[in-house]
Amino acid sequence: MSAEYVTKHIDLDNRVAALLVGENDKHLRALEQLLDSQISLRGNQLALEGTEAEVERGEALVAELLGLLRSGQSLDRATLELAASLSAGQGDWAGDLNKIVSDVILEHRGRRIRPKTKNQKAYIDAIRSNTITFGIGPAGTGKTYLAMAMATAAFLSGDVARIILTRPAVEAGEKLGFLPGGLMEKVDPYLRPLFDALYDMMDSERLNEYLERGTIEVAPLAYMRGRTLNDSLIILDEAQNTTPEQMKMFLTRLGFGAKMIVTGDITQIDLARGQHSGLVNVAGVLSKIPDISFVYFDSQDVVRHKLVQDIVSAYKVYGETPLPAARRASARGAAENRRGGRGEAAAAE
Questions:
Q1: H or E segment at 199?
Q2: Starting from the edge strand earliest in sequence, which strands make up the sheet with 45-51, in order?
Q3: CB atoms within 10 A of CB 28
Q4: Which of 58, 94, 186, 274 pairs as cysteine with 48 (C-beta 3.0–4.6 A)?
Q5: Cβ distance 313 to 299 under 8 Å?
Q6: φ, ψ for residue 287 (rounded to 5)?
Q7: How far is the C-alpha of 122 from the C-alpha of 115, rounded, in Å?
Q8: Can you tell me the distance from the alpha carbon of 89 to that of 61, in angstroms, rounded to the nearest whole number?
């Protein structure tokens, strides 16, 4: 027996109606896709049509979007996707959308940096509330970028005197020794993403001045040894590529008036075979210590191209699936081909 369809009408005022439907009804069409129900606007009356459950969800979602618009916020595809994601979850989500969207961390050249998912909002709140925060999850979830925004905002407001950004210079397929230049030139490719984020958040002249003074410092992790970092916000990026000893060394650099943010993706460890990741075991070591928070991201938090979210999910499923016979045979064949190639090369010599 098919589900019975119902229709719900919602009256809107002129201004809000135009903002809700968007230019050429683009918001309305996006909502139809995200809610899997029929949505139409006649005059100032919005009509929702679908199953009773779909219409109830749509009515709650529209109420949240209207509240957002009346508070002066604007709508875009990311906000609509966030609203749909929240409405599909369990529990009472009323007010969550406004809390997330209105939490502007930093504004630069008219561009607002803010959380775009519920986990990102939890991450920002954790950084505000704790001395040490770990952000762990896949690529594209905003771990590093939001950490950089929080550091920049704290520095520009005077809450901290310095920003210190660091990464382990671990080789992922390339050897440092083959790169040109001195040590800083060699590690520059590892630190470049941190510079790129900084240039997104402040004018280049000011940033260069801060870098020259040393009030903003970008350095490989090895440079942290033996230091005590006071009145600073310190970010350790790509922390999955630290050893447990390096992780302990970094965390014990914490000084008075300082905060630390540690980010990483435990599915992308580039350490040499036999080395253990300091990010993998740190939760077990520190999880019961107050003033330290762990926030975990998943593929739903990916805020890059939609395809990136699908790629992350596909790799997660692939990694959790038992190795089928076809994959085992393929792997054996590839190994045999490599051995055969080496044998032929040796014979040719």
A1: helix 183-201
A2: 5-11, 45-51, 38-42
A3: 15
A4: 58
A5: yes
A6: -60, -25
A7: 9
A8: 12
> In which residue ranges of the chain is pLDDT below 50?
1, 171-176, 326, 330, 334, 341-349
Distance CA 225, CA 335 (A): 42
List, in sequence order, every residue forming a beta bridge with 132; answer none if it has no partner.
260, 292
In the numeric block, which tokens belong to residue 269?
A: 């460890």
| Structure token digits, residue 181 | 């230049």
233, 105 contact by CB (below 8 A): no
pLDDT at 182: 55
- Tokens 């499923």 appear where? 317
The separation between CA 230 and the C-alpha centre of its own chain, rounded to angstroms, equals 27
The pLDDT, as a whole number, for residue 184 is 54
pLDDT at 73: 86
List pLDDT tens digits, range 283-302.
Answer: 999 989 999 999 999 988 88
So what's the pLDDT on residue 326? Answer: 47
Measured CA to CA in angstroms, residue 308 lies from 133, 142, 314 at distances of 25, 13, 10
Q: What are phi and psi of 293, to 5 degrees?
A: -125, 145
Q: Is the pTM of this model over 0.85?
A: no
pLDDT at residue 159 in the model = 97
